[in-house]
Amino acid sequence: MSLPEVAVYTRPGCHLCEVLLESLVPLVRGRARLELRDVDTEPRWRDEFGSRVPVVAVDGLVVCEHVLDEAALERSLAPRPE
Question: Is the pLDDT reported for residue 82 higher than 70?
C-alpha cells in the first residue's frame, strides 16, 4: 500500500502558508508523502491556485484552502477499503 500524496500549493513569503504548514506537517508525518508546490513556478498552478494559496490537495483532490481543515484532512487520509 503506497502512502497518499499531500500537495500544498504555496508561495514564498505567504504568512498563511507558513501557519498552515506548521500545523499540517505533524499531522501527515509518516502517513503521507508531502510535496510543497510553489504556484509561481508553474503557469497552470498559478492560474488555478494563485489567489487561493495555501491550498492542500490529497491525491489531486483539494481538501482545504487558506486555513487547514483538520477534519477534512483526516477524512482524506483515512484508510480506504481495497
Answer: no
